[in-house]
Amino acid sequence: MKHEMKNGQHARRSTLGDLVSTVNSVCRNDHEAALAVADLINRRRVKILGPFKNFRVVLH
Questions:
Q1: Could you tell me if 14 and 1 are in contact, meaning their C-beta atoms sit under 8 angstroms apart?
Q2: Are 6 and 16 in contact, with CB atoms under 8 Å apart?
Q3: How far apart (Å, rounded) are the C-alpha atoms in residues 30 and 27?
Q4: Residue 54 above 70 pLDDT?
Q5: Residue 14 and residue 19: Cα distance in Å, rounded?
Q6: pLDDT digits (tens, 9 = 90+) for 19-30
Q7: Would the pTM count as exceeding 0.90?
């Protein structure tokens, strides 16, 4: 989901919604997608900015 910069412009940052949509498109169901997104966040494979920056995701 990296966005390339063109002509010296800043790349648009992906949102959490973009991540969920992308993961959802390759998963079999919503539960699998939620587990995958939580794992990406908890293993710091994606960078979260804003008020949730240092939170961990726990699924029940």
A1: yes
A2: no
A3: 7
A4: yes
A5: 7
A6: 999 999 999 999
A7: no
Residue with tokens 């800043």: 10
Closest of 50, 54, 22 to residue 41, by C-alpha: 54
How many domains does the structure of the chain reveal?
A: 1
Write out the residue range of the structural domain in which residue 59 sits. 1-60
Residue 56: which region, alpha, beta or left (left: phi > 0; alpha: psi -120 to 50)?
Answer: beta
State how far the Cα of 43 lies from the Cα of 29, in Å rounded to an integer: 21
Name the amino acid, one letter, at 2: K
- Kindly write down the DSSP assignment for every residue of 11-44, as one continuous string: PPPPPHHHHHHHHHHHSSSHHHHHHHHHHHHHTT
